[in-house]
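Thread amino acids onto this structure.
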């Protein structure tokens, strides 16, 4: 075997060993990141569950309040305006109160939705974008340091 051939083989073995070492360390880093992402995903799911619970609670309160208000309004309407000329004013007042309750409930639901949107991206998405930028820099550095054939 020529001397140049054995020197080339040694360089290839050294490069293979270095590549395997880098792959092993990269695998460890990837496993740690996967664990960290699972924690972030759980955190995002907990936050989403809290927001969903608040929205559902607000919606239920809105629906039950509107139903009870409608029943009371009907009873008051029947009782107060049975034989009076002011029944149109009573109907208008009850309608205004019910509409104000509905508008308040709608406003509250919209405020909860806007608060969720204002929170921006999730923790997982922010960390993923940071990691992509870091990986891009690392790959660029490795390419610039890599020996050219």
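Threaded sequence (149 positions):
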């Amino acid at each position: 075997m020529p001397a140049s051939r054995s020197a080339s083989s040694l360089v290839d073995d050294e490069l293979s060993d270095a590549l395997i070492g880098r792959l092993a360390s990269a695998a460890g880093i990837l496993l740690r990141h996967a664990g960290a992402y699972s924690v972030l995903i759980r955190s995002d799911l907990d936050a989403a569950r809290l927001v969903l619970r608040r929205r559902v609670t607000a919606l239920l309160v809105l629906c039950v309040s509107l139903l009870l208000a409608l029943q009371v309004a009907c009873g008051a309407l029947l009782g107060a305006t049975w034989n009076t000329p002011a029944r149109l004013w009573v109907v208008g007042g009850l309608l205004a109160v019910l509409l104000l309750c509905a508008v308040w409930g709608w406003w509250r639901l919209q405020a909860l939705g806007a608060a969720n949107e204002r929170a921006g991206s999730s923790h997982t998405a922010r960390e993923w974008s940071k990691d992509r930028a870091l990986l891009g820099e690392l790959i660029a550095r490795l390419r610039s340091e890599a020996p050219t054939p």
